[in-house]
Structures are given as C-alpha cells and as structure tokens.
Amino acid sequence: MPLKRFKQLLFILCLLSVFFSFGQERQKITVKYSGNTSTSPDIKEGALVFLRDKSKQVHFIHKGADLFCDKAIYYEDQDYIEAFGNVAMKQGDSINMVAKYIDYSGKAQMAMARGDVVLTEPQSTLKTDTLYFDRIKQQAYYNTKGTVVRDTSGTITSQIGRYYINASKYQFIQDVVLVNSDYTLNTERLDFFTENGFAYLFGPSTIVGETSKIYCERGFYDTNSDIGHFQRNAKIDYDNRTVEGDSLYFDRNKNFASATNNITVTDTLNKSLVKGHYAEVWRAKDSMYITKRALAITVQEQDSIYIHADTLMVTGKPENRITRAYYNARLYKSDMAGKADSIHVNHKEGLTQLINLSRYNSSDAFAMKRKPVLWNIGNQMTGDTIHLISNPKTEQLDSLKVFENAFLINKDTLSEEGYNQIKGLRLTGLFRNNELYNVDIVKNAETIRYLRNDEGELIGIQKSKSGSINVKIIDQAIDEVRFINQIDGNIFPESDFPKSGRRLRDFDWRGEEQPLSVEDLFKDDPPLDLPIIQGLADYVPPEAFVDDNVTERVEEAGKATPKKENKAARNLPIKTIVKPLESTTKESDSTATKPLKQIIKKEGQ
C-alpha cells in the first residue's frame, strides 16, 4: 500500500510539472503567422528572422496582445522581439498602437515604440516620436513631446506625458497646451480624464477665449460642459472687467462667473472697483451682484467715492451703468458722507439717490433714524429722499435735492449745544468746488439761527417762519438768510430763549453716525463669518515610470542569459527632471488694473 500510494503521488507530481511547464511555455511570445522564417549570419545570438508575405503581415501574440509587422527579429532565449515596418500592437478591443519600430520584452512586458507613434483608445488619440508601454502597470509614457486629440475637448500637447489605461487618465507635464475652437489652455501640469473630459490644472495656468481670460495656479475645468473652478491667485478678465477671489466658478456657455472670499472686481473703463466676499458676474447682461462686506469704489482724479452696503448690484453697459446698494447703505468721500436704506447711482446722468425703503413707516420706532442723511463740510441734511446731481465729465457735485421733510442742521462752532437749523417741505442746494454754497427751503420753512458778530460773540438767537428761505453759506458757515413770504420771526437774547425751544420739531442730529474714513463704513457691521474653502488638492508628482517594480522585472528578464546583453534594459527611458511649480502672479497681473489698484491703495484700501 505505501508503495502504491507513493507511485500515485509521483504520478500526480509529474502531471503538475507537465502542466506548469506547458503553462509557462504558453506565456512566451508565440508566432501565429509568418510568411518566411529563417536565421541570418548577420544576427548574433541565433535569433530568428520572420518576414511577411504578399497576403499577410507577421503576427505574434502574447498574454492578450497582438503584434503585427513586416519584419521581426525574435531572441527566443530572452523572449524579446524587434519589429520593423508598419508595426501595430493591439491590446484587446480598446488599445491600438502603430509605429515604424517596436521592441518588446515578453519577460518584462515592456515595449518601446519609435517613429510616427500613434496610440488610440476609444476617447482619444496620442501621437509622439517615442512611446514606452508598460503592460503590467498599463501605462504609456513619452518625454519627446506628444499630442493628444480628443474630439470634444480639442488637442493637447506637452513635452512629457503619461497615459494610465485603467483610469483613462492622461498626465501632462511641461509646456502643456490645450487648443479648443472656443479657447486655448496653457499650464505646466494637467491631469486629463478622457471618459468625462475633466481637466485638473496645477501651476500657473491660463484659459484664453474670445471674450475672457482666466488665470489660476490650481484649477478644474470640465471640457465637455465648459464649466470650471479656479483657486490660488485666480482671476477672470471680462473685456475691461477683472474678477479676482480665493475661489472662482466659471460657466462659459452662460457667460457667468461667481467668486467667493476676498473678492475684487476691477472695471478699468469706468475706473471703478468693487470688493466683497461673494459675487456673481453676468457678462452678457453686463451685470454684477456682490455681498458680504460689499464695497464699491469709484475712482476720481481728486477724490474717490466709496459706497458700502450689505448687497451691491451693478448693471448695464458702461454708457448706461447703474449701481444699487441696499440694506444699510453708506457713502463716503473726503468732503461728503451719507447713510440710507438704499443708494441708487445712475452713472450716465450723474444722479445719486439716497432712498428710505417703503417698508419703514411713521409708526416704526426707528423710522426717523433710518431716514437718508447726508453730511457735507459740517452740514447735515435729512429727508425722506435725497438726490445728489454731479457732472459726469468734471466729476464735480452740481446740486442737491431733498424731497419731503427736508432738514438742514449746522452745529454752532462756539457753543456746545447750539445748532443752526432750517427745515421745510423740500430743499434744493447748489455746490461750488464740491462745497455747498446756496440752499433754498420751500414751503413751511422754519429756522433757528445763532447770530454772531465778527468777534464771534453771540448777538442773539433768531427763530423764524416763512413760505421759503434762501441760505448763503461761506466757509462752511451760514452767512446770510433771506426770508420769502415771511410769516413771523424774532431775535432773542440767549438768556430769554428757552432751551426747550432751541430744537425744531423732528430735530435729529446724527453726527455720531457720520463715517469719517473708509474704515468707518464697516464699524456697525456684524462679525464676518466666511466659508472655509477646501480647495483642490496640491499637486502630487507622479512616481517614476521606471520605478523599483520595473527595475526588478527588467533585471529578472536578464537572469537566464547572464553572459548576454539584457535586451529588456536597453531601451528604457531616461529619468526626466521636472522643475517645481512656481507662482507667476506678479508677471501675470494685468497691467491695465495696476494703476487703478495703486490709486485705491494710496487712499487707504
């Protein structure tokens, strides 16, 4: 019995040995067709030469790959083949590579193609001079400049590239250019997925179209949908407008862009700049929406105008531009400031309207506080609505109109609680060199005025009523008051004028609310809570094409013939040194926006 069992075991081992030997033999390169097979004295090492005939090419197969050529030299001891003339290598139904020459190691499963190389897969076509193909890792690599064509995305060129077959992903390095019928993309690193057309940009990158230019140092672009996300010094140039922010979103089909956190929108044509922390820009409509600490700056030669509100909207073409600021809007320039629920600016007409929203009424405890207010060189003006008219060409204030419940207050400079006051139904003011010099109060006009002599001594306090009042202002002080259709009036010594009567009805001095600087525009704002932008991941350099795994396979391929040249190692790519990514923001910064930004910075922003 023991002997019988031993014989059975020996028989099984022999069968397994034959099976594995057969399996190993089947793993070698196999000749499926050859028109002519021979040896040649010109070829050392006893290699076989295969030639095609008139009907078909030479055909080899190896582990699911087919190799076709006009001529081949096969080194059987190293399982290595050199293929010449109209060479084609196919892997399954998806990968097809053609070239003038291909060498292939069956042991290392490494191929090198040279001369008009074309690699095609279902979504793209790769062309280059020399291409290396690792069948184990399913990767193709070139470092002699290559071109990838994808019908829906365009043509991509780069100095170095790698194709990951299983992931349907290209990785392009150095001088990367994607040319599309609608735009041209330039970057230093690009990861591109052929199935969905997703492109990931790393390093200084630009996307230039007919109507826009995008810059970023980290970005994503969907080449099928023409939608992108951009970060790291990102900006979009729309004609004469530049949008910058920590994170930008762009939809080319809709001509739409949005930005999040630390946003600046610069309009070089209109010399204006808008800041905030969330913005939407519609190019076709030439409109913009911005919120979260929104600030609009109109740059003028002598003095810039700042408008701050919860939300800003800028609409219309440059020749018909409208700016709307609403919810606690505030205005500041060196000689003027204002507050209102809403501010409306018609740039073409030079009309600025300070408006009280209709939702506030006389029964609202805060209605009086919410009335529009304007300060100019010591004068405070309030009313239900205030209009400022300026000359768009000279940028000088021309006139002022206060509609309904007009009230002008000027603090008496020599007394602590004295206020010169004029009120009426409507007020019209005229400016000279941006200073108020003439005021007309019409209908139900009332006044309280502190009269002083040339030495500044108080003569008396005048209180009057009339149909209308004309006021002349010189050096920020009321110089002359003319009463038209006067009803009554008198001048009282200070001691005879009761303190309870020194304020006209609806008197409301709001000097503590006046912004005295750009920073004051934000003093009543709640704390700013900005969203955290996760951002795109940092660039991870790819592992070397010839890594430890490839080196081990190549060395293993040469062990069977230690006295011969290891042919699997003779055509491996030389390692390429890739420069680290560097920011080029300073060089890429639009020269058109620099002077405007310098003006803003000079004024404290």
UniProtKB/TrEMBL annotation:
Residues 579-605 are annotated as: Disordered. It comes from the Bacteria. Residues 55-188 form the Organic solvent tolerance-like N-terminal domain. InterPro entries: OstA-like_N (IPR005653). It holds the Pfam family OstA_2. This is OstA-like protein. It comes from Winogradskyella sediminis.
